[in-house]
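Case study 2.
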Amino acid sequence: MSEFAIGVDLGGTSLRVAVVDDRGTLLEKVTLSTKVLRGPERVVNAMCDAIGVLQTKYNSNGKFLGIGVGVPGIIDLGTGVLRESPNLPGWHDYPVLQEIEHRLGTRVILENDANVGAMGEYWLGAGRGFDSMFMYTLGTGIGGGIVLEGAIWHGMTGMAGEPGHTTIEPDGPPCACGNRGCLEQFAGANGVLRMAKDAIASGDAAKLKRAIEGGEELTPKLVYKLATEGDKACRAIYQKAGEALGISIASMINVLNLPIFVIGGGVAGAWEAFSPFIFDQVRKRSFVYNATAPPAPERIAPRCTHITHALLGADSGLYGAARLPMLPEEQEAHSPKARVNSRAL
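Prediction:
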């Protein structure tokens, strides 16, 4: 008899709930619109209703291990309160964990969405077979997650693994965080759009301007499409994105010496356009990479540093969330919540 868990991926536009067994098989997935539901109470009610239906349906299949929930934003892992989330207006200081546990009366593990995405890729995707992994998630901004020897590394307060606001250019464009020249100003979706708008305004992106004037929406996908068609301005945008990522990854390799660094998220679909510039920068800036590079970037080799794209797409967060209740409890020692509880004893 197998074991199974339920994973939840809560986003700004959709709520997805899935049943996953301990072999990594996704048995069923339900998708609801959070925009239609609106507000935390209604979203949590719908989430719990979906979880209850799925749990009842699959109880006869094996042992139920619990529920993992991935949420965008800053979470107080000690209390399960969502402090702030730009993707979930109206959820400020909302006690997500308490509300879910109160409704369901079962074990729930709350985690940042980028961290559960990293856990999913580590378990079943690009990080499978490695002992540790760093993942960049290129979405609207840039998130990240660190998995060390099978457990998510949270840092002191749960905010570890956030590469999006590390500095690439000290005097670069201003960022909403208050810094200048952050990584996400170059490699996140908003960063790609910022550079595209700047190129249009300067008169350097005539083809892109014509496409928009012809009715196409300005998106990273459009910039990528034109880049693959050889447009010089769009290729330059993704070159800058790749160089910025390469600078960041080189520093992370030098500091952490992990075996694999994975690039995921929607912007990672442009991997072919920006990845050569990642490797160019990493070779220039990381002595650790140069000492541990694999024979070829696409080859997996022992005791080498690998840089690659994610494999699971949008489902990485569902797999990662479902994985959390399956982990041995001692792996929660990396969690600020566990350390707070141990001090209370």
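The first strand starts at residue 2 and ends at 10.
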